[in-house]
Amino acid sequence: MKILCFAHLSEQLGASSMELELGPISVADFMAELKNRYPALLLDHVMIAVNEQFVEQTHVIEPNDTVALLPPVSGG
Amino acid sequence: MSHDRYSRQQNFGPIGTAGQQELAAKHVLIVGAGALGSGNAEILARSGVGTITIIDRDYVEWSNLQRQSLFCEQDAIDQLPKAVAAANRIKQINADITVHAHVMDCTASDLTSLLDTSKVDLMLDATDNFAIRYIINDAAYQYQIPWIYGACSGSYGVVCNFIPGQSPCLHCVMERMPIGSASCDREGIIAPAVQMVVAMQSAEALKWLSGNRTQMSDRYTVFDLWSNMHQSIRMDKTGKHEACPTCGAQPSYPYLKSEAAMRTEVLCGRSSVWIRYPRQEPLDMNLAASHAMQLQAEVKSNPYLLQIQEGEYRLVIFQDGRALVHGTSDSLEAKKLYHRYLT
């Protein structure tokens, strides 16, 4: 599974993308797993897109999917 | 007007002379005259959009000049209101169009009275906080006027069209108003990220205004110029639409209700400002505290309230969204602090 970390998440992770051996896994479980592995990541309010599609918490992510983690951004 | 002023744009097939005439007849409301407001206003003015209204509550400061392309050093020296400085520059760029500048906060009632008194074809979001975007979103769907969300921070940016009757609204995409979202004063900002958002927003605006509506993007587009990443995200299957208070079957437009507005009250004889901002849901105190700590502020909390100390300012925040800001008697300054930590 490919994970893309946008904005401050890439600083918190130390990389903008990574590969994880995960799935099939629900979005909710995936987020919990991510928080568990990388406690420094601030994931509240972060939006999740799987293969460039917004998905619900119950959506199941497959091992070959690309998951984008998108923090809300307000600046302008 | 010189005959070939718009020739290069008219030679672009999808616009042509007919599209150019459409542009001249249109009115765009740009909410915010900062970085995104500057960039969008300049492009739309040069493109010949007939009427531009630009709103901003702030004044020009030196830290704006790195990216806010309508302003010059003299504007910062004179501390001109951004809406005024922007309008001055737009008139220099294109004297044939009409420009209205409003130095104001853009509350829900400011926005709705503007939309009641003039026909606006499109709203461009060039604001810097989510509180106002939820107001714009409600107004857009009530008045059936499309709006284009744009935001940036660091090297990251987002653009999304919200078209009543066609696309889900901001509420559907972000059900809860985010706390501690990425902003420019905290995370910094590079000018190319601004210009990238501006390019995408103004292209979408030109499509809508020139009669090329079927070309409008239906994606939530994000990019990070530093890590070379780009995603164009489909929004259609989130399934939240029907129950949405803004674009669902029975809309209530919660952010336009007068009791939903942020109110401030300067306390006599003390340099403190009360902020009353009824939230749609109780404030998550732990989340707000952890964001404040990320921003290097000094944070104290108990089950009832949260205290954030930033330099000479101290914010005392209650769970229902009320806050007391000590260390200033300027309500705009107090609101800025509130938005920095809580929206």
Please outline the helices and strands.
The complex is a heterodimer of chains A (76) and B (343).
Chain A: E1 2-5, H1 8-13, E2 17-19, E3 25-26, H2 27-37, E4 47-50, E5 60-61, E6 66-70
Parallel strand pairs in A: 1-6
Antiparallel strand pairs in A: 1-2, 3-5, 4-6
Chain B: H1 7-10, H2 16-24, E1 27-31, H3 35-47, E2 51-56, H4 73-78, H5 82-93, E3 98-103, H6 108-117, E4 122-125, H7 130-143, E5 147-153, E6 156-162, H8 170-173, H9 184-187, H10 191-209, E7 219-224, E8 229-234, E9 263-266, E10 272-276, H11 285-294, E11 298-301, E12 305-310, E13 313-318, E14 323-326, H12 331-342
Parallel strand pairs in B: 1-2, 1-4, 2-3, 4-5
Antiparallel strand pairs in B: 5-6, 6-7, 7-8, 9-10, 10-14, 11-12, 12-13, 13-14
Give a nutshell description of this structure.
The complex is a heterodimer of chains A (76) and B (343). Chain A has 76 residues and is of the alpha+beta class. Chain A has helices spanning 8-13, 27-37, and strands at 2-5, 17-19, 25-26, 47-50, 60-61, 66-70.
- Distance linking N and C termini of chain B: 45 Å
Into which percent range does the helicity of residues of chain B fall?
Answer: 25-40%
Order of neighbouring strands in the sheet with most strands of chain B? 3-2-1-4-5-6-7-8
How many beta-strand runs of chain A? 6
Give me the secondary-structure category of chain A.
alpha+beta
Indicate the mean pLDDT of chain B.
Answer: 92
> Which residues of chain B form runs of ≥5 with pLDDT under 50?
none
Number of strands of chain B: 14
CA distance, first residue to last residue of chain A = 33 Å
